[in-house]
Amino acid sequence: MKRAVALATRWLVVTMIVGLGSIAVESVVGFDPTAANAQENARKKKPRRVPNMTEATFKKLAEIQELMDADDNDGAILIAKEMLERSRRYNGNELAQVHNMLAVLYYGKEDNPNVIYHYEQILAQVPDITEGMETSTIYNLAQLYFVEEQFDNSLEYIEKWITLAENPDPKAYYFMGQVYYQMQDYPQSIETIELAIRIAKERSMVIKENWWSLLRFLYFELENWDKVIEILEVLVKEFPKRAYWLQLAGVYGQEDMEDQQLQAFEAAHVAGFLETESDLMTYGGILLQNENPWRASRYMQEAVDAGIIEPTAKNLQQLGQAYQLAQETDDAITVFEAAGKLSDDGNIYDRLSALYLEKDRFFECEQAAKQAIDKGGLRKAYNTEIVLGMCQFNQDKFTDARKTFVEARKRTRDLKERAAERQCQQWIAYIDNTVKRNQQLEAAGL
Question: Has residue 266 been placed in a domain?
């Protein structure tokens, strides 16, 4: 490994997919800016007096470094181990330097257990090492144990580091919150992450998106919806993404905050975040609930025309309802005609028959009502029969109309639907009177 790489800051990113999305968990192995802050603080104290390094030891360490620069890590490890075999020759400071080089070498081999071992051996040399080396090693161990999923050890070391550090960086508290999260101690994780955010705000530091995202997830798990909303409102402001807007709209809806839910969807639509069939159908449904059918029909129709919304029976039925509520009857009829052919039951044809009746298209009304009855699945089939009878009557099909109303009357009687039964009886009487009057007029030659 090249020296520049061996001594560089090393970042490992562990991604966990949880609940409402992904949370990026950052961990650091090797030299870390947060640990560097502790080293700087340590320098402000009266430094420890540590044993000097001999010229012979310095030469051996330089030999190891040359092998590292030449990418001969195995050779470097061999010499370092030979030095440890003669450990009685070296003081604590010198041994710590050897273990530190071995930790770097094993890190290059992605051998975390050996990295941890040699970092632990560095701490075994206290007080013969500098405070800066001690604190950075403690921080690195906290991170390594986290990566190895030994969370109790990770917590122990990060707590120790915070105790030693003066004015700890908020990133350390956020890391501790991650450890508590992995231990499923959500209340403690929340408390620690909120402390990190509070310190960051006091120092005018930029708070990372994943800090808020993890905090949102924790409150979500605890079903603290007020806090979930509060954090999502921060996220949509600071990191306006599709997922956050839709999550916020969803929680608003769950909490019966209908006005806020609509506003969230409006903002997401303006930002171009409503890009799937589910998004746009949900948005259309919310507009319908908020008594804005014209906009609902417009947006859903645009999505159907663009191929985003599939023209299924269910989707077309919602679109047709939007047109109907917007009093765009002709458009509603067109959509329901297409939806009826795709539907497995007769409910769409039932609605279509009523629209035909409204437009005085009695023949189409009759056909649609018959198709609705034939397909079945109607909640109140007698209502469809009443519409069928009315359409037949308006075509002067008095015999057919009377028969339809008689059947409907029987059905309403069996179901004890008294109001509908009276309506059928009135239609039967009206048909009989009409037929009788027509016969009288015909007999009179009129």
Answer: yes
Q: Is residue 341 one of the residues assigned to a domain?
A: no
Residue 257 lies in domain: 228-271
Q: What is the mean pLDDT of the chain?
A: 88
Structural domain total, the chain: 1
- What's the pLDDT score for residue 242? 95
Q: pLDDT tens for residues 77-134?
A: 999 999 999 888 899 999 999 999 999 999 999 999 999 999 999 999 999 999 999 9
The vertex-105 CA angle with 103 and 107, nearest 5°, equals 65
Over residues 419-441, the mean pLDDT reads 93
% of the chain residues with pLDDT over 70: 89
Distance from CA of residue 73 to its chain's centroid? 44
- Within a domain: 245: yes
Over residues 273-331, the pLDDT tens digits come to: 999 999 999 999 999 999 999 999 999 999 999 999 999 999 999 999 999 999 999 99
The single residue listed with the structure tokens 């016969």 is 439
70 within a domain of the structure (yes/no): no
Asked whether 383 and 346 are in contact (CB, 8 A), the reply is no
Residue 194 has pLDDT above 80, yes or no: yes
pTM exceeding the 0.85 threshold for the entire prediction: no
Helix 151-164 vs helix 33-44: crossing angle, to nearest 10: 40
